[in-house]
Amino acid sequence: MIQALKAAETLVIEIAAKAFCCVAIMAAILPLQLISIVDWIVSKNEKVLGIGLLSSDMNLET
Question: Where are the transmembrane segments (predicted)?
Fold first, then answer.
């Protein structure tokens, strides 16, 4: 009986660890995905509005 409880406890800990790792990896990757989404939105607005927010040809010297 004690061995069954220890086996069940080990299984629960392994499942919880795998779930935690999946959540932690998704949380770590999310900011990187947001960067590409924001870049895509800005580039679409540049084309529509005709302005260069991220363009290297912007003349910042006045």
Answer: 15-42
